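hiii so um. not sure if this is the right channel but i have a protein structure encoded as tokens and i wanna go backwards to a sequence. like what aa goes where. can anyone help
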């Protein structure tokens, strides 16, 4: 159970594929338009259940409760040796090989 007032992350399907605009690319039209939103939970709710939140901008949204106190998870992907070689080439061009 997640308590009212907790900072949470919810998920919502904004548009189903059949509701998407006709002029969008075919591969985009095949998938739903989804939204993940963070805000304060408006009443005690279980994870994976429908929840209402109040966002930082004062907007009320509903969706499936995914996470309590969500953290940021992002990175720059896998190591690419090509970028290391490019970095060496740029250093050579800009600084004449000095470190």
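sure thing!! here u go:
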């Amino acid at each position: 159970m997640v308590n009212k007032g907790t900072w949470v992350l919810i998920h919502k399907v904004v548009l189903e594929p059949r509701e998407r605009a006709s002029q969008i690319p075919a591969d985009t039209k095949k998938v739903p338009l989804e939204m993940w939103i963070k805000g304060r939970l408006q009443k005690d709710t279980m994870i994976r259940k429908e929840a209402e939140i109040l966002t930082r901008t004062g907007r009320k949204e509903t969706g499936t409760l995914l996470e309590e106190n969500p953290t940021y998870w992002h990175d720059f992907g896998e190591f690419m040796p090509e970028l290391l070689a490019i970095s060496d080439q740029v250093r050579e061009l800009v600084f004449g090989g000095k470190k």
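oh and The mean pLDDT is 94.
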